[in-house]
Amino acid sequence: MKAEPKRARFQSSILPHLDRLVALASRWAAGSEAEDYVQETYIRAWSAFDQLRDAGASFPWLCQILRTVIGERRRTRARRQQLVFVTELEAAHEEIVASDAASPLDDLLARLDAERLRDALRSIPEEFAEAVELHDMHGLRYREIAQVTSVPIGTVMSRISRGRRLLAGLLAVTEEAEATRGGGDTKESRCGIIPLDATSPGLRMKRNCDD
Amino acid sequence: MTEAAPEHALLQELVAAFADGELPPEEAGVVEEHLRGCARCQRELALQQGVSRALAPGPARGASAALRLRVEQMGPPAPRRYAFLRNRSWAAAAAAALVAIGITGGSALLARRGQTSRPIAEIALLRDAVADCRRAMTRNFPRKADLQAVREGLEFPVRALDRPGAELFSTWKTTLAGSPAAGLAYRWRGIVVVQYVVPAEIVRQQPAVGTALRRKGFYAASERGQGIVAVLTDGSGTLLVGDAPPEELRSLTL
User: Fold this and answer.
1) Three-state SS letters, A55-122
2) Considering the domain boundaries, does residue B36 fall inside one?
3) ipTM of the complex, rounded to two decimals
4) Is the overall model pTM greater than 0.80, yes or no?
5) Which among A89, A164, A165, A166 is the top mutation candidate for probing chain B, defined by the most B β-carbons within 10 Å of its own β-carbon?
6) What residues does each domain of chain A span?
7) CATH class of A6-73
8) B147 plus B215 within the same structural domain
9) Most buried in the list B48, B77, B97, B102, measured by CB within 10 Å?
């Protein structure tokens, strides 16, 4: 059987992922910049296409290349906002799930909002945010994320679990900080973080200078 | 808190994977059994599911029409169909002529263009350069473009290309055909071109490459859409590898 030409194989296995890859690139940049990353990813994918052994694994393979491209292009540009205290967020999460009363968890679940969660993703450490985003927002399986990020699948499992816990903890402490601010008290919250900008509707946080 | 059993520490890590359907059946069974009697892990499960559900993607903006077009046109140009070959008599005559010209005639034509028909895989320097280039393309270009650092320890001059529009973004050291080499990656006209600099002698020793250099002053080849050009410059040999016809790559060295 004559082998299908490279261009045809490329178009059938790689091109269908274009929209998904642009959506993923939008994680780091907007508009034309995201498309620049994707274009370079496709250029490299074309060059290395012979190395792709399993056409079914083409999307994680593209994600891996995109990640490399963005790592090179954005070496001096930090995506992270000011990071919050991980241990404090874990404590907030612990308080929610450890409570026998239903209300803390129910309150939190009722407040879960995609926009706020996506904003919160920028405030937790990159490795957790990336794993959660690749799974929950881009539909990759754990083994695919392991391939993209070059870590064992057990690490992926742990990062996703912990990442979601941090997000829940961050929403909880933010609510608390906002409630405190609404009450006219601008002092630090229980978790040692305060809103960066009292007028900001987002979740930008900074370390408390008193710590 | 009544369920503070030691197994929480282990099972809590598995709850997310359970919620995502990522556990093998036997482990999923263990977690499921534990969940029946553990309110705390049930809350953890609800939290993991809630966050995951809230983050689930809505309609996203897709690729622009311009990007889609650029990507669809990627790769070497589709083979041209010569109109005269559609005529059977012309095709027969052309075939006969090609047979008459034979291999020697074809080789002479390639040699005149500085090209060779010898497979790249048979030429150690080119094979290693293409493999190194593909590795860098898919895995990782070093983040720094530091010419000074890449020159250190090399006993041959390493000069970067100096052509308008060629933006150097990465440098690294590697080994090609058993010889130390410098790799320099550029963005140029929407593609990535990699320049390998090696001792001139190494380039001259390569079969077919040395011959082309002596006859025409450069070597050019292409394989599966990837162009390769070799030239000698100031005591070094330079190889250019990129997804462009070799004639275009060569313009970077002129």
Assistant:
1) HHHHHHHHHHHHHHHHHHHCCCCCCCCCCCCHHHHHHHHHHHHHCCCCHHHHHHHHHCCHHHHHHHHC
2) yes
3) 0.74
4) no
5) A164
6) 6-73, 86-207
7) mainly alpha
8) yes
9) B48
Which pLDDT tens digit goes with each residue over B11-39? Answer: 878 999 999 999 999 999 999 999 998 88
Q: What are phi and psi of B80, to 5 degrees?
A: -75, 145
pLDDT of residue A195: 37
Query: Any idea which architecture A86-207 has in CATH?
Result: Orthogonal Bundle (1.10)
Closest Cα in chain B, distance from residue A202 (Å): 16
Which residue segment(s) compose the domain that B20 sits in?
7-53
Give the CATH number for residue B240: 3.30.200.100
Q: Does a structural domain hold residue B71?
A: no
**Interface contacts A/B by beta carbons within 8 Å:** 160
- Predicted pLDDT at A129: 93
Domain count, chain B: 2
CB contact under 8 A, B51 and A168: yes
Predicted confidence band of residue A181 (pLDDT cuts 50, 70, 90): low
| Type of residue at A147 | Q
Residue B108 domain-assigned (yes or no): no
In angstroms, what separates the C-alpha of B11 from chain A's closest C-alpha? 11
pLDDT at B67: 83
User: What's the gap in Å between the CA of B39 and the closest CA on chain A?
Assistant: 8
Could you tell me if B44 and B143 lie in one domain?
no
Using one digit for the tens of pLDDT, what is the confidence trace for B144-186? 788 888 898 888 999 999 888 888 888 898 889 888 999 999 8
